[in-house]
Amino acid sequence: MYYKFSGFTQKLTGSAPTAAYSPQGLRPSVPAKSPAMIFATPTKVVSEAGSMVEYMGANGVPDLQRLFQTSDGIPIHLKRGVPDRLLYRTTMALTVGGALYCLVALYIAAQPKK
């Protein structure tokens, strides 16, 4: 006898061989035709691109490497100036504030109910 899991009763129930090999009533099927493309064909095929690759803008990696590799005593996370300092200080303030909030919540939760 063949068994399958019944989604209704949440137990194993007797079933036919075809139902036991296709769980939950799913039947294997092959799509009749391939699905249609969602987007149009690419504007440039790889073989058409040739050896030259076009970028959207100038490559800024060498400039950033030069900036980050200078040894001026500034930590790496503060090298880009004011935006980095603002982000660092905001993150530290939120971290300290969250830790204090957790401690206050723990203190309040530890007090007995009146």
Task: Compute the separation of the termini in Å.
Answer: 64 Å
Low-pLDDT regions: none
The largest sheet, given as strand count, sense and whether it forms a barrel, is: 2 strands, antiparallel
Beta content: 5-15%
Number of strands: 2
| Helix-and-strand structural type | mainly alpha
Helical residues, percent: 40-55%
Q: What Rg do the Cα atoms give?
A: 31 Å
If strands are numbered along the chain, what order do they take across the biggest sheet? 1-2
- Give the overall average pLDDT: 80
Query: So what's the overall shape?
Result: flat
Q: Would you list the SSEs in sequence order as H and E?
A: EEHHHH
In DSSP terms (H or I, runs of 4 or more residues), the helix count works out at 4
